[in-house]
Amino acid sequence: TSGVGKSSGISVFHQTIQPKVKSTLRFSNVDKIWTLENLSQESHYLITTDYTNNKTQVFIISKNYRDYKTRDFDNNFTTVTIAVMPNFARTENKIIQVTPHSVILFDFLFRRIMSLDYKDEIISAQIHDKYVMVTIETGEVVILEYVETKKDSKLVTIKLPRVLTDLIFTGGWITDSSVLNHVNIGNEILTRNDDDKEIENQNKYTVFLLATADNRILLFDKKHNQKVFEFMNVDNLPERITLDLMDLNTEGYPDPMIKQVMFTTIGDQYVTKEYLVILTIGGELFMYEMYFDPIGNIYRFTKINEVAQIPITGAPDNAYPFGTT
Predict the structure, then answer these.
(1) How far apart are CA 179 and CA 91, in angstroms?
(2) 30 vs 315, which has greater pLDDT?
(3) Fewest C-beta atoms under 10 Å: which of 39, 57, 217, 325?
């Protein structure tokens, strides 16, 4: 119960989710599924991928899930991820598909516009807003930006900071965050606030996170000016973490413990907070909450597994071969 008098009410909670099922499709084997929206923001395509049979299928939702095939879309490949790009001109949605060896740009009828091919296998990928990040089995990371003009649409490669050239990466993440609005560079605090540097700047910008084979988590944005920041001592999974300029003198031995890293916002229309989430190869999950330190004028992170009652549960065996993402 809640409230007093006429403003009181009773809330009923169920221990399980009770969805309203509108339609049902049965598949013999599906490993991943996506929906793609049209200009009206209605789900138009249903995409499925099957790792066992090495295929991807496209269905038109409004046509009673009719199987859709085109000359340019090859069904005989699995899909790592697929998404609709932001439509700034409001003319026609574009689709990006990541396969094990290619990043392909289509129009909304799945006619190929361009393709970027890679010799080595793409083991993971993320699409966020107009950016695509792919991690290749050699430990290389490529970040692409979708560029749309009146004449054409294309994907261009974003140059990474030079200090990342010789590193081996196990994965990454793209997000919108305020984390780089207040950062520590040696003994100096760098802030995006021009008027009052002591006030928290909560404006969000696109940032890129990379996890390395020697268990470091690095952070930078598109206008990095060759600066890369690092979550200090994250390999020890301490109770608190700070962000500082990347330590160029550290040369760790490649022994991956961090399998996947996420940086996400959780909350509602009233209150939101940003969280760093770390998944280890052993299947353990660690969650850090970001908060602003008004005295130091920087962002800090504190582990909240115990407070949020998030158990640190490891997989029974090494979870890496089974892809616990």
Answers:
(1) 34
(2) 30
(3) 325
